[in-house]
């Protein structure tokens, strides 16, 4: 199991405990999976599918990035706007997205940093 799997599991367990949920209660919220499976997610023994991750976010009232905070991001293509597009679209800022796309790399990085700072 990788460091990322362990971190994901720790964050899942921490959030479940913050909400006062048992393993089984979270399992019930995740389409009635067994508590053993939830435990395997929390220990990093099993990986969660994207659809199950989405359910977990809904069940725990967090965004997907909650599980990955603190991890070193991959080397992103500086010309790719997808990560910033996703942030702006999820925030309902589609008109602003066109303006951001017109910025140079330095401008896009500044907007991304501002959004991330505001989100904390």
Topology:
Elements: H1 3-18, H2 23-29, H3 35-43, H4 50-60, H5 82-90, H6 94-101, H7 105-119
Helix pairs in contact: 1-3, 2-3
Shape designation: elongated
Second-tier CATH architecture of the largest domain: Orthogonal Bundle
Gap from first CA to last CA: 29 Å
What composes the largest sheet?
none
The CATH top-level class label of the largest domain: Mainly Alpha
Annotation, overall tally of beta strands: 0
CATH T-level fold name of the largest domain: 434 Repressor (Amino-terminal Domain)
Percentage of residues in strands: under 5%
Order of helices and strands: HHHHHHH
Q: SS-based structural class?
A: mainly alpha
> In the residues, how many domains can be counted?
2
Describe this structure in words.
There is one protein chain. The chain is an all-alpha fold. It folds into two domains: 66 residues, lambda repressor-like DNA-binding domains (434 Repressor (Amino-terminal Domain)), CATH 1.10.260.40; 38 residues. 62% of the residues lie in helices and 0% in strands. It has seven helices and no strands.
In short:
This protein has 7 helices and no strands. The protein is an all-alpha fold and 120 residues long.
Keywords:
120 residues; 0% strand
